Amino acid sequence: MSIGPDIEEVLDEVGTSYTILRDSGNVTGEKTYYKTNSQVTKPFIREFFLEAWFRYSTQAIGGDYIRFDKTGDIFLLMNKSPQMFEDSIIKYDVVLYKCNVVIDILRPVESDGWDANYQKLTSWQYIAESQPALITTPLYGHDLATDEELGYLGLEVHELYLPESLGVQVLDRIRLNLSDYYRVETIKPRRYANVNVIEIGEDTRAAQSTTTTSSSTTTTTV
Fold it and tell me: Which end of the chain has less neighbouring CB within 10 Å, N or C?
């Protein structure tokens, strides 16, 4: 007989309650045991990285948002590995990354209008609003791991972690705090299951979309 139900019972007694956040309806009633990482020499890992146990019958999958009910902290489920005993899953070892920002995701759409320089106007289509996310500088030695000066533009490169299900594309706009803009430069889709690692840089494109009619001009800040 599997000991999975026994571990689940222990989690229900001493664990931390969490909610799985989904557009189709939140999932409640599960608990976890977690611990912070001891790698004190890596501030990112200590601040944002949790190792945890989920019950063998959990409904959580990679890419889910997990909200701790007591603190309200939201985490992205990065990894979910089954722990086996006597050929049965008894629990899942999971890795959680803490979200540190809320973003809007917009996509450029070429409009029918023209600006004063006879260039096509760009409007912005919302892909997601008020989306929890994690933004950090790259953890390892990638090509653009540090800020670089390319031509006359200073590119400040960060990594953004988001669920793959959002369908983020290269050249999408990431907006923070209603005034900070980043452009999606590169998408790394296979580092984690159902989670994309996205390189973003400074977005110098127009922050407004302008729609012209026969009688008036309407400008909307995005």
Answer: N
Condensed to tens digits (0 to 9), the pLDDT of residues 77-113 reads: 999 999 999 999 999 999 999 999 999 999 998 776 7
* pTM of the full structure: 0.81
Neighbours of 101 (CB within 10 A): 15
Residue 119: both structure tokens together: 């260039």
Helix (H, G, I), strand (E, B) or coil at 115: coil
| pLDDT at residue 73 tops 80 | yes
What is the pLDDT, as a whole number, of residue 42?
65
Q: How far is CA 10 from CA 1, 4, 18, 36, in A?
A: 17, 10, 15, 20
Domains in the chain and their CATH numbers?
Answer: 4-98 (2.40.10.270), 101-214 (2.40.10.270)
For 176, counting Cβ atoms within 10 Å of its Cβ (0-12 exposed, 13-18 middle, 19+ buried), the class is middle
Neighbours of 102 (CB within 10 A): 13
The overall average pLDDT reported for the chain is 83
Q: Check: CB of residue 90 under 8 Å from CB of residue 37.
A: no
If DSSP codes are grouped into helix, strand and coil, which group holds residue 193? coil
Check if the beta carbon of residue 75 is closer than 8 Å to that of residue 96.
Answer: yes
- Going by C-alpha positions, the residue among 164, 169, 157, 166 that lies closest to residue 196 is 164
Contact 86, 2 (CB under 8 A): yes
Q: How far apart are CA 183 and CA 186, in angstroms?
A: 9
Q: What is the pLDDT of residue 214?
A: 35
Reply yes or no on whether the pLDDT at 128 is more than 90. Answer: yes
